[in-house]
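seq as requested:
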Amino acid sequence: MTAWLQREIRLAPRSRGFHLVTGEIEAALRDMPAWRVGLLHVFIQHTSASLSINENADPDVPRDLEMAFNAVASEDLPYVHTMEGPDDMPAHVKASMIGCSVTVPIREGRLVLGTWQGIYLCEHRDRAGGRRLLLTAHGDA
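struct tokens:
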């Protein structure tokens, strides 16, 4: 039998950078059915933050990702959209490049990420508020 589960979670405000949120997503899905096979779609409801799947073991990876994206979408570019501060338009650029969603397979009621993979909130603003994620899971018993 096919079933759907949808849940919205609110992440606490975080500083600018790449933050692992896999545990928070898994905690929100603790009562997920033990589907034999399925998919989890995670969507961020914001335009100045994004989601990514990347290495979850070495703390240098999120620092290097932040450094690289700051170089690609520098605050020094001559942006026209500046009403919300110098970090806002670069945040929109980074969010467009990385994306607003990730999809993760489900097997036997658990997320199937690779050994070194985790789900990251990519916070692109200096002082952002909490972020909302919409989790939509679909699977077969």
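The chain has one domain: 2-140.
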